[in-house]
């Protein structure tokens, strides 16, 4: 072989090696740069040429893909889209995806498959996708949303099955219709209107917003005290006002009233009448560590893998008794989400066992075979069964006192939370946490109505939030027959 041919052969071989190396780099290490690049129209066309999987709840389709006149598939939200919007999210050619549409995107578009799905696609030469089924009961979801929206309230509701952690309802107001964002003809105008709304309708107020919980947090304070040796008959101050230790700051009972018209009360009476001064004394007696430990055991500060965004709650930094006294009544820096408050109620209802909450019950294939299924998961024994039983008894008495309600067998705690720069003159957030029946409860709820709803400064948890919570509990019982 002469020199020229040998040189040409070596050069050709080098070009082949370079080509192979380049192909390896592109296919093996540059997928995000090229294949998944938002400017890659081939990916977009491929995804739009086949339907995404469905999102459903209790057999009702919530989201599905519908083919348009151009042969492309558009996302359509068919069942109560405004009620479900903050949970299912949206899928838009312009604004991407949110909620479950985002977190389960690879399942819904078929890029994440089981071995069985890969084999079916290979044999049938047909794209396979996953369908997401939720634990939510649609009729309960509708009641929860309507209870808020029909009154023009801003707020949220979460209902949980205490024994399993299944989320039965998660409503948030103001809300939005994801169909208007997924439709290219209405997407831009809708997006502008939603982002201009001061109520933040694109936010899931049940999980992404944390607020001072007010007196509902006395459940945590009571747990800390019971763990420290207090009992329902322990005596506490009933004074209308108390000065925090080593300070000139005072805290008062609601309306400046003496607790149940008594100078000294039991813990049972203090809980039933939600007396702030008694709980300041109670928390200081139990101590900072007991309060912190109780809050942590109930999951305050935790987040859960729900498939939707969630903000962690906090009790803030507590180093002194004065700070503890303010925190004990759910004020100062204490801030939690509606979901977290629902978990607190569900944990008491479940004998002190905290279950991991979940929204997705299962993922099924095109052939309805179950690809994955969420199993109940116990996170911890937050409180003993005896402490849970005592708190249940206290919450049962609280429910009977709240607004004079003597209806269904429910255990509850209300809260009226001051907030803002001028907190004492604010329109308070109205809270209600409850479960029913009070023994072997099949549902626990948390409700918040922001800024007093339609009652302004006159709002209380009992007058504004409690009727919503009771309606949701009743809806669960009706749905279950």
Automatic annotation (TrEMBL):
This is Penicillin-binding protein A. Residues 155-473 form the Penicillin-binding protein transpeptidase domain. GO terms for biological process: cell wall organization. One of its GO terms (molecular function) is penicillin binding. One of its GO terms (cellular component) is plasma membrane. Residues 52-131 form the Penicillin binding protein A dimerisation domain. PANTHER family: PENICILLIN-BINDING PROTEIN 4B, PEPTIDOGLYCAN D,D-TRANSPEPTIDASE.
């Amino acid at each position: 072989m002469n020199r020229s041919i040998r040189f040409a052969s070596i050069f050709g071989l080098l070009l082949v090696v370079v080509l192979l190396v380049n192909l390896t780099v592109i296919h093996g290490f540059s997928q995000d740069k090229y294949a998944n690049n938002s400017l890659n129209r081939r990916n977009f066309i491929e995804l739009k040429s086949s339907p995404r999987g469905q999102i459903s709840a209790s057999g009702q389709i919530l989201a599905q893909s519908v083919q348009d006149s151009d042969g492309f598939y558009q996302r359509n939200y068919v069942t109560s889209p405004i009620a479900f919007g903050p949970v299912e999210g949206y899928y838009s050619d312009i604004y991407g995806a949110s909620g479950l549409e985002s977190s389960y995107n690879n399942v819904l578009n078929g890029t994440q498959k089981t071995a069985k799905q890969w084999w079916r696609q290979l044999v049938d030469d047909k794209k396979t996708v996953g369908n997401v089924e939720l634990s939510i009961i649609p009729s309960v979801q509708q009641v929860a949303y309507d209870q808020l929206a029909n009154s023009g309230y801003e707020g949220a509701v979460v209902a949980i099955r205490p024994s399993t952690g299944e989320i039965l309802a998660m409503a948030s107001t103001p809300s939005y219709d994801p169909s208007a964002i997924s439709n290219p003809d209405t997407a831009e105008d809708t997006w502008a209107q939603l982002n201009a709304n001061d109520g933040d309708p694109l936010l899931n107020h049940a999980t992404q917003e944390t607020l001072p919980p007010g007196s509902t947090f006395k459940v945590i304070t009571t747990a800390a005290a019971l763990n420290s040796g207090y009992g329902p008959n322990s005596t506490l101050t009933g004074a209308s006002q108390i000065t925090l230790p080593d300070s000139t700051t005072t805290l008062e009972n609601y309306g400046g009233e003496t607790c149940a018209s008594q100078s000294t009360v039991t813990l049972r009476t203090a809980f039933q009448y939600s007396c702030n001064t008694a709980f300041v004394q109670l928390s200081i007696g139990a101590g900072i560590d007991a309060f912190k430990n109780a809050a942590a055991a109930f999951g305050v500060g935790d987040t859960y893998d729900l498939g939707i965004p969630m903000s962690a709650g906090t009790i803030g930094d507590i180093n002194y008794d004065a700070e503890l006294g303010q925190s004990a009544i759910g004020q100062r820096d204490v801030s939690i989400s509606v979901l977290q408050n629902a978990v607190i109620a569900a944990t008491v209802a479940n004998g002190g066992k905290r279950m991991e909450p979940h929204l997705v019950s299962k993922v099924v294939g095109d052939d309805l075979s179950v690809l994955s299924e969420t199993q109940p998961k116990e996170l911890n024994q937050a409180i003993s069964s005896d402490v849970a039983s005592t708190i249940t008894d206290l919450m049962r008495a609280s429910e009977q006192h709240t607004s004079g309600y003597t209806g269904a067998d429910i255990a509850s705690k209300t809260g009226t939370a001051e907030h803002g720069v001028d907190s004492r003159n604010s329109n308070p957030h109205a809270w209600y946490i409850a479960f029913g029946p009070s023994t072997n409860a099949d549902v626990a709820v948390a409700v918040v109505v922001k800024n007093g709803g339609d009652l302004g400064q006159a709002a209380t948890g009992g007058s504004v939030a409690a009727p919503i919570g009771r309606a949701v509990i009743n809806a669960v019982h009706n749905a279950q027959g």
